[in-house]
Amino acid sequence: MHEANTAAQADTTTQANTTAQVNTEQWAQEIADKIIAKMRVVAERNQHTVPYTTGEDGRFDDHSAPGAINWWTNGFWGGLMWQLHHATGDDLYRTIAEELEGKLDAVLMNYDGLDHDNGFKWLPTAVADWRETGNQASRNRALLAAANMAGRFNTAGNFIRAWNSWDGEPNTGRAIIDCMMNLPLLYWASTELDDPRFKQIAVAHANTAQQRFVRADGSVRHIIDFDPATGEYLGSQGGQGYGHGSSWTRGQAWAIYGFALSYIHTQDPQYLDTAKRVANYFIANTPANGLIPVDFRQPENVTWEDSTAAAIAACGMLEIAKQCEGETEADARIYRDAALRLLKALADNRVLWDEGHDNLLTHCTAAYHDKDHEFAIIYGDYYFVEAIWKLTGRELFIW
Ligand code: GLY
């Protein structure tokens, strides 16, 4: 009798899981259809732009001009076009992505325009192009970008220098958590050239990041300063978050996805453990409405959100879930459900589905102490689409 009850219970659980999976697939499919319908119109009218945000008229701005073209986010419109091309086969997207990739050559030929964000610029453009079409010129661009990035490695402190000099600050000994997302350019180059040097640098940086950025509670620092000559650890800064000791949500999201990616490229289980630890912290701090603040430790009376953090964290959690499938099914379900909760909160409350606005996501924030908050940001749209593509099996894996 007891055994029969247990078996019946197991059947009911399996049935409930299957129903939930079918509902999720249906939901994701509907969202994907809405994205494709809107983005065809948006792409058509933004064929020659390099967007970052929108103006008051809801239309994208353009970062194509000299100087502006160096901005770290300029690869994401190209990445969005490659994801849409991969999903639909529509050549409009390919043409737009190729034009943008060509514009980034001005950055590749400008030493001061290059920094650790070479990953954000050339993974969604040149590497995506290479993976999608086999274009040799794209491969060459991405390898040059990887070689430049590898040249930023500091052997005394085992970290990749983040930014160049800025506002009089030399930044020579500065590393930031965001760099975890740029490491895949180095992993890719090692595979492509069958040369372990790039991967060795990525692993050395990832190990330093694990040790210095991730706190015992699973929260993550944004900026770490080292003495660039000796490698001595000097301290941390709040960076784009609320302040010293705080928990900038996009930084947490970069860590979740970035450590998951280092696991995918190395199979070293410590990176997956770290990704899970930061994800657990993120899940535990997610508000009841599923909408993510700019900093988990911002003052209670501040309501600023950052939808980009939600979209990036969802991508990272879905990758963690994929790595757990078949091994630890209960873990896979936890991270998949957490990602879904973030994505549904965005889709229901923070996406503009009309074709009059160029952007998808609203309420994106670049930095806590900036003058402006809660606007459209192109990488928010990119990661939202990537997450939906992961759920519908359409993704072009670019990292
Ligand atoms: N990588 C800079 C940022 O996340 O704003």
Automatic annotation (TrEMBL):
Residues 1-21 are annotated as: Disordered. It comes from the Bacteria. Keywords: Hydrolase. GO terms for biological process: polysaccharide catabolic process. The active site is at D117, D178. InterPro entries: 6-hairpin_glycosidase_sf, 6hp_glycosidase-like_sf, Glyco_hydro_88, UG_Glycosaminoglycan_Hydrolase. One of its GO terms (molecular function) is chondroitin hydrolase activity. This is Glycosyl hydrolase family 88. The keyword Hydrolase applies. It comes from Bifidobacterium oedipodis. The keyword Phosphoprotein does not apply. Substrate binds at D117, D178, R250, W254. Belongs to the glycosyl hydrolase 88 family.
